[in-house]
Specification:
The chain has helices spanning 17-30, 54-73, 85-104, and strands at residues 7-10, 34-37. The chain is mainly alpha-helical. A two-stranded parallel ribbon has the order 1-2. The two termini are 22 Å apart.
């Protein structure tokens, strides 16, 4: 991101929500295209493939990459069709809350900002 390169990062985006937010903010500041690998956004593609056929799921990853490249070439936003680093940050917030809830054996409220 600091080098001005477009980034596709697999989830989880970072080890913590704080790290993910820093990555998201850095990507926003640099102006590069950034995408988090949430292949389930492309799960509709698997309907084209026979059930149990592994290549169907692999095909969703190809569509993620194709979507990011299309956004770069045509200067389009990655979202809402593709997951941005903001989506990756939100997933990290939920993961952190689940971990905290398990460690403290209590209910945890989720706050994105």
């Amino acid at each position: 991101v600091q080098a001005g390169k477009h980034v596709l990062c697999e989830k989880p985006l970072a080890r913590t929500a704080q790290e993910a937010k820093a990555m998201w903010e850095a990507a926003q500041k640099s102006g590069v295209k950034h995408m988090t690998g949430f292949n389930y956004r492309f799960v509709w593609i698997s309907n084209w493939w026979p059930r149990g056929h592994v290549i169907g799921w692999e095909h969703t990853f190809v569509h993620e990459i194709a979507h990011l490249l299309d956004c770069i070439v045509n200067d389009r936003d990655v979202g809402p069709y593709g997951a941005t680093f903001e989506d990756g940050y939100r997933a990290n917030v939920v993961s952190d809350a689940v971990m905290l809830s398990a460690m403290t054996k209590s209910q945890v409220d989720i706050k994105y900002w």
